[in-house]
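Problem 12. The chain below contains 280 residues. Write out its predicted structure in token notation.
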Amino acid sequence: MIIETIKARRLFSEIAAIDEEVFPLDRAALVLALGEYPDLDMMGYLRRLDTLAARAEVLIGINRTAVDYIESINEILFVQEGLRGNSEDYYDPRNSYLNQVLDRRLGIPISLSLIYMEVAKRIGFSVQGVGFPGHFLAKNVSNGREIIFDPFNMGKILTINDCQELLDEIHSGRVAMNASLLQPMEKRAIITRMLYNLKGIYMQKEQYNQALSVIDKILLLNPGTPSEIRDRGFLYMQTSLFAQALADLEFYLSHAMAPEDSSNIHNHVKMLRSIICESN
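Solution.
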């Protein structure tokens, strides 16, 4: 198991080093899952995406408008394959792992959007991920027209009013719709957002080793992020790795810009130094 974990980390590190322009979103999502599913057949899942795309290609027809593409992909993914949003168990970590989403046909907005993006890419249809607050969306921009749609809800096309209603549902009317909320998200940022989702789930479940593995991947994509190094320090404390925890919290204090939690972190640093001195 240790060998598989090392291999998975090495593969993710290699992908994390790839430039945004050629960043392989599908492979990154699958390698992300390797830590939890070391027997994952990555080439097999990539072929499944290829097959889904080929089936959608057959349905599109001659005109090939943006709506034709969306309707064809919707038919394959959500009608024929039965992919759907997992509203019943939204915080199941399997909803964020691409292999599990394809196998179980259940996902959350970001994982279903990722599948949509990858199927669309394979047939020459541009779909971008949209980091909408609290609910990831997708969009196509072509011929001066922007089409927003929701893979979590079977690829439903959304109006601006629909987007505001979605915001109201999530944020209880505290957030007003504006164009900046529909900006496309870079591929590396999409994987980072998936990792943040997993981090939150594992920390809530007190599965600290899994959370540590997720933070490691976040830092491979976003090196030196002070808040992640701080959180890793707290997780090291939970797993009794006190020297590593001390190093991370000291790094945070020296690199974060005027952190509001500095007093709390100083107290933890003092405690950790005491624990380490006593153990020596």
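Discussion. Residues 2-182 form a domain with the C8orf32 fold fold (CATH 3.10.620). Students who got a different answer should revisit the alignment rule from Section 12.3.
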